[in-house]
Amino acid sequence: MVKSSGGLEATLLYEKYHDQIESTLAKYPADQKRSAVMPLLYLAQSEYGYVTKEAMEEVAAILEIEPTQVASIVGFYSLYYDHQAGQHRIQICTDLPCALRGADKFAEDLCKKFGVKLGETTKDGQFTIEGVMCLAACDKAPMFQVQNKDGIFYHENQTVESAAAMMEEYRTKTK
What we know:
The protein is an alpha+beta fold. Helices cover 44% and strands 15% of the residues.
């Protein structure tokens, strides 16, 4: 059993993925095992579908760091999520350069087309449309990435119509 500096015991992840976690930790010097935070978060997200508060505490306990340090990583990267979502996360970059190329209006119109507000999930549970910071394609906005069980897919220079058509393809593939 692993205990954090606060005495919290890591349970499910460590017990279920003991070998994988130990293999990951072995890649880093013992005094720098905090560097394994991202692979362990990925493991936790794969297990739970998103990084729950309990998963953040588990990862923190394994790495002997504070849960707030783990939460700061989850909050910073768009590849980690701290809440449940639809089968497909539609993440629209709404950072300033993209906004100057119409990303805000694109996000608003796409949400309207699917009957949700930014951050909400469609009634059928297929799509969660989110605004995120910097997806590194400023000159190709409006753009978004789709995250689902098959991976991460970028779509650049989009219109609401092209995005909606693509989303319908994703919907068809998962039915």
